[in-house]
Amino acid sequence: MSSAARWSLAALVVVVALVVAIWPRGDDAETPSYEDRFGAGGSTPTSVSADPDALAAQRTQAGLAPCPAPAAASGPSADPVLSGITLECVGDGSQVDLAAALGGKPALLNLWAYWCGPCAEELPYMQQFSDRAGDAVTVLTVHTDPNESSALSRLIDYSVTLPGVQDGDGRVRVAVGAPPVLPVSVLIRPDGTVAKVLPQPFRSVDEIADAVEQNLGVAA
User: Does the keyword Cell membrane apply (predicted)?
Assistant: First the structure.
């Protein structure tokens, strides 16, 4: 090979390397990290304004299960970690006192956001687990981004009808001491204390069932 040919080949290799380095990557653009969105502190605006009529139409289309209501029995004996946190129910816009609503029964809180890729894979498994567990475990999604309209759109796309609350300020994450990543599953004992914080995506319904049985003692 001549000297000129070798220089031409070297120049071509450099150009190709530069193109690869700057070419946009779809996964990176579509699935930012929690820190990219909110920073390590998780500070977020409270809400994103949405047209009330459009939001109502989305809620009707989504057909989410009702958020849990406070049990008729007396409250939990311990000091619930979610005490004092009241959030909006994504399904109907009502207010949910989390400590009261979750008291007296094992619960699984699934922290997610509409832009989170692993959350999209995990949520259908959460639905399957909830269907399997029935009344034995309360499964509640916690949307940790201010854009409630986008959350409803994603739930419609995923055919997930789990009850959920809107937590644009990340209050649940802070209360349970979860790291700034998504998804996160939080296992809550009937007395309102945290049994386990799992900052990981689940890959099957059996993985979720195993975690619940190991940390809450409930087989499903």
Answer: no
